[in-house]
Amino acid sequence: MLALDTDVLVHWTMAGAPHHHEVRQLLELEVRERGHRIALLPQVCWEFLHVVTDARRFADPLTMEEALTRVRDLWDAPESVRLQPGPVVVHRVLELIRENKLGRKRILDTVLAATLEDAGIRRLTTLNVDDFRIFTFLEVVDPRRL
Questions:
Q1: pTM of the prediction?
Q2: What is the biggest distance separating any 2 CA atoms in the chain, rounded to whole angstroms?
Q3: I want to staple 126 with a disulfide (CB 3.0 to 4.6 A). Which of 5, 24, 40, 79 is the partner?
Q4: What is the CATH number that goes with domain 2-84+120-145?
Q5: How far apart are CA 141 and CA 116, in angstroms?
Q6: How far is C-alpha 87 from the geometric centre of its chain's CA atoms?
Q7: CA distances (Å), origin 114, targets 11, 13, 80, 135
Q8: Measured between alpha carbons, how far is 61 from 35 in angstroms, rounded to an integer?
Q9: pLDDT score recorded for residue 91
Q10: pLDDT in tens, 13-29
């Protein structure tokens, strides 16, 4: 199973994104060819909505209605495994932030990593590879390195 970071979901969806082709290739390989499922967290969905509807980031952003439809379709897809942070995640996030001396800009990455760890998901695809290397319990998959 492969978990998606928000940036990968954005690049998969937005045809004009710089790594659109690489991300699509990776997800095609994982889901269609290998038969793997994709792990998805609500936090990734919310961040996705925020990013793809932003006219400052994209010349042709999605409308909120389009973005909502994309999230619903992905969340409900048979290839998706929907993860929710469990009760131990809060303490684990606090522990990881303290141990690794992380600042406020690393909170959401840490929540993502801790939620995956708690669910037993060991693989995460992201374009922000360096942000996740600190979490040694994750195998970080860079879609640009296929």
A1: 0.93
A2: 41
A3: 5
A4: 3.40.50
A5: 14
A6: 21
A7: 23, 25, 19, 9
A8: 31
A9: 98
A10: 999 899 999 999 999 99
